């Protein structure tokens, strides 16, 4: 009886495995050219 409980994955483990299967969107492409730079004195 105890061996059956240990062998079955818990609900938390099952949920984490399902979440890991969700595809991640690709990172946004950076525009070509020089990266934008900010001046040393940046006012907020």
What key phrases describe this protein's structure?
44 residues, mainly alpha, 2 helices
Distance between the termini: 64 Å
Number of strands: 0
SS-based class: mainly alpha
For the biggest sheet, the summary is: none
Question: Which regions have little confidence, pLDDT < 50, spanning 5+ residues?
Answer: none
Per DSSP, what share of the residues sits in E-state strands of 2 or more residues?
under 5%
Overall 3D geometry? elongated
- The helix fraction, in percent, is 25-40%
Write a structural description.
The protein is an all-alpha fold. It is built from 2 helices and no strands. It has helices at residues 2-7, 11-21. The longest helix is centred in the middle third of the chain and has 11 residues, at 11-21. It is elongated. The chain starts with a helix and ends in a 23-residue tail after the last helix. The model has no long low-confidence stretch (mean pLDDT 77).
Quick summary:
This protein has 44 residues and is mainly alpha-helical. 39% of the residues lie in helices and 0% in strands.
Write the layout of secondary structure elements.
Blueprint: H1 2-7, H2 11-21
